[in-house]
Write a structure and sequence with these properties.
Helix content is 80%, strand content 0%. It contains four helices and no strands. α2 runs antiparallel to α3. The longest helix is centred in the first third of the chain and has 31 residues.
């Protein structure tokens, strides 16, 4: 079971890193444009949504690795003397912060969601 969790986590991580790479590459290309930035529509689809999708992938991976490490689905585990506990917990907190930062700092997201 742990092997399959790790394998799925690796594939989801690859997807998240690919989305993050798309976001960084788009921002890099934008700096070379004469205007210095992408249009709002391109920025929404090439920067904002990949940031949110990559953040979601990172949270999923962190939770899968939490399950793989602790062999339980619950988040309510307390093992303060275990180094793997602290690594998995720090990873989960950091990836959640990355997701929240990507999702809630772009006002374009809320405007595009209201349009639908």
């Amino acid at each position: 079971r742990r092997y399959w969790l790790d394998l799925v986590a690796a594939w989801v991580l690859l997807l998240g890193v690919s989305l993050y790479t798309l976001m960084i590459g788009s921002e890099l290309v934008a700096t070379w444009l004469p205007s210095g930035h992408l249009s709002e529509e391109y920025e929404l689809w090439l920067v904002t949504w990949p940031c949110i999708g990559g953040g979601a992938c990172f949270v999923i991976v962190a939770y899968l690795l939490w399950i793989s490490t602790h062999c339980k689905l619950s988040l309510w585990i307390w093992r303060p003397r275990s180094i793997t506990y602290w690594i998995a917990l720090t990873n989960l907190i950091g990836s959640t912060g990355f997701f929240v930062g990507g999702a809630f700092t772009h006002p374009q997201v809320w405007g595009s969601l209201r349009a639908y």
